Structures are given as C-alpha cells and as structure tokens.
Amino acid sequence: MPSYDIIIIGGGLIGSSVAYHLSKTGSKNIALLDIDLEGKYSSSELNAGGIRTLWWHDVNVELSKATISFLETDPQNFGFRQKGYLWLHDAKSWKTYQDHQGIFQKHQISIEELAVEDLKNRAPFLDKTDDLVGATYSAKDGIFNPNLLKQYFRSEAKKQGVSLIDGARVVDIGKKEKGLEIIYENLCVEQKKPNLEDVFGILAKAQEPHFQEKIKIKTDVLVNAAGAWAKNISRLYGHKIDCYPVRRQVSIFDCQGLDLSGQGMIVDSSGVYFHAEAKHILAGYATPNEPSGYNFKYDGDLFFEKEIWPRLYQRMTRAEALKHLTGWAGLYSVTPDRSGVMGCVDPKYKIYEAHSFTGRGAMQSYGVGLALSELITFRKYQSIDASALHPKRFHSAHGKLLYEGMHI
Ligand SMILES: Cc1cc2nc3c(=O)[nH]c(=O)nc-3n(C[C@H](O)[C@H](O)[C@H](O)COP(=O)(O)OP(=O)(O)OC[C@H]3O[C@@H](n4cnc5c(N)ncnc54)[C@H](O)[C@@H]3O)c2cc1C
Fold this sequence. Notes:
Shape: globular
Distance between the termini: 45 Å
CATH architecture of the largest domain: 3-Layer(bba) Sandwich
Helix content: 25-40%
CATH topology of the largest domain: FAD/NAD(P)-binding domain
Bound molecules: flavin-adenine dinucleotide
C-alpha cells in the first residue's frame, strides 16, 4: 500500500498553500488529493479576488497581511492590483467602522477617512451620495488573481516532490494502530475523467456515487482542506464541525464606458461590492437568508436585475446603461462566527483542519499555509498565532468566538 508522511485532502488555495509551505520547509513524501484539480466547483476558482486587511480580529488581519506581503514581492505574477478598498458608509456602518478603529490602529493599517465630498475626486462616478456619511480608503488592499497564486503554490510544491493526485475522491478514513488509512475512489479510470456535473451533482444530493476502483493509501499526518466539503471529510474520522455551504453569486456586466480600471474594490453601504474585471465589471452580493446547500445555480438576469443593478443605480446614474453579460455561483463555507477553522483536531492521529474561511479564504491562503505548516512541523505556531481559529471555540464553555461583521 502506498504510504505518505503527509496527505492533504483538497487542492484549492488552502490545500495548495499548505502543500507549498510544508514542502518549502523541508517536509517530504507529501500527497495532495482532489476530486478535480482543475477546480470547476471549488471556491478557489469561483471567487471575486478581493484582498484586504480590514477585519475585526488579530488573526484575520495577520493572515491577510501575510498574503498581501507575499503578493507584493511579485505583483505582476499574481495579477495583484494594489489599488485599495473604497468602503462607502451610511450612518450605521460608519458607527460600526468607528467602533473597530482600535484594531486597525493596532495593526497600523493605513486607512484614509473620506468625507462624502471627497468622493467627487476619488470616484466621481458615484454621484448619488445623500445617504452616505463617509467612506474609508485602505490603499494597501486590492484585487488579485487567485488562480495564478494557486498555480504558483502547486508548481513550487511539485518541484519539491509533492504528488498531486487528481480524480481522487476520499470516501473513508480508518484509524489504524500506526497512522491513518485513507480510501479514495479513483475517478480518472483509464486517464479519463468522469462528468463532474454527475460527481458533484450526486454529492450535492448526499447520495453515494459508485466508481469501480477504490485505492488505499497510508499516512502519518492528515490535513483536511476540503473547503465547503470539509465537514463531510471530518465525519470520516469522527469529528463534528459546525460549518455549512452557502451559495454566493457574482455578475459580470458590460461597463458601457464606465472605466473602473483606476479603482480597486468598491464596497457599497448596500452590501454590493464591485471592481473592474478585464474590460467589464464584476459585482457580487450576499443574498440574505440564502439557504445552505451545495447549490451552484447562477440565477442570471434575475440576480443581476433584482440584487445588483438596483443597488448600483441607487449609487450612480451611470449604472443605468450597464448590461448584464454573465456570472456564476460558488460556495462560501460558513461557521457560526464567520471566521475560519484551523488547527490540530486529533493529536494522536495528527489530523489537522484548515477550511471554512467564508469570503476570505483566497486572501488568507498564503498566511494559512504558512501558519499551519509551522504548526505541523514545529508543533506550535511561529510566524502567525492562529490558535484562536481552533474549532474547539465552538464547543468549549470558555471558547471565545471571533465574530466577523465585515464579511461581504
Ligand atoms: C462568489 C464568491 C466570491 C468570493 N470572493 C472572495 C474574495 O473576494 N476574496 C477572498 O479571499 N475569498 C473570496 N471567496 C472565498 C474563497 O473563494 C474561499 O474561501 C476559498 O477559495 C476557499 O478555498 P479552499 O481551498 O478552502 O476551498 P476550495 O477551493 O473549494 O477547495 C476545496 C477542494 O476540496 C476538494 N474536495 C472536496 N471533497 C473532496 C473529497 N471527498 N476528496 C477529495 N477532494 C475533495 C474539492 O474538489 C475542492 O477542489 C469567495 C467565494 C465565492 C463563492
């Protein structure tokens, strides 16, 4: 039976970053398993590419900061447009911002506070501002290309000898006398991939698809980085975790001459966020009361016309002409306090988890991989103390929740 020192389940940004960092710090004999390494349904392929340090908790700020510092080393290679986050505030959200200024100051995050009149210079197309009381601009934040970052993590990990195993759907995990036995179904029979709609569609209905070939492998250390599917993997080794998948949609539309290329991310007080995406504009909105589930259906014109367009038109006359082109839906994996999960959940069998980073897994991916690889290698956090993200916070009487209200 093939045997590895470390197996990572899930090859999205988080799993790929963990593989990259572990291999960089000298760990050997690592395998990274994924149902579909191309990531057609993975959140890492379906996000908006925003990156910022404005969060309410130290660990969330630090994980994002680490990723920003890394992107700054080679912005072009990662499509990093460091053009800031412009956050538009009504009276309620302005108060919330002010209540949390302490953490921004503590981490020396450069934030410019803007009066509503200042917006005329900063973003003249925002011409309907009567309901706003102010705005903030954080210049170090921006937009990047998560796919380029993921490819970088993987190619560097591969150079260090990490095995990337595609078409591997983990279905069972056994705790043995020595280490863990992982069983996966090989979906790439004769190098041919199955129809992913079938695989993910059937999984969404919680039925068991049956593929012929089951493969057993052994490992000393396991990392569960299966994103919105992580709780299904946790169940296989007897750990119950409070997280659930929720659909999030983004639209792409023709900008009709509205040039946002000089801007980074703009977050409106209504909750709509938007930025330039090649020649078009990308905008997203987290529909309240979206039911949990593995729903990848993009509602198309309906979503654009009901959720996106009216909010943009409330803010700028120029939105009148915007023309919906396309869009997509992906999953947030959400926890009760909207912060991610990472840490060792079974010291005896050396099982680690890193998942459920809601709408910030892309921007935290470098930091998460760095911190977790150090925890695995040195048995304690070194560069970033991420112990506050341990899932025991949801269960122990003294657990301190890290509620994040600035997620969009
Ligand atoms: C619309 C949208 C907008 C977003 N915008 C942003 C943003 O602007 N900035 C930001 O930072 N974040 C954003 N996010 C969130 C971000 O995309 C995620 O937090 C991040 O990609 C999670 O990465 P991951 O590696 O944990 O999960 P994923 O990328 O989903 O990877 C998990 C992998 O596990 C694999 N897997 C699952 N089950 C199994 C199994 N049984 N066996 C083997 N493999 C398995 C899957 O195939 C998948 O490839 C957004 C998300 C969405 C949906």
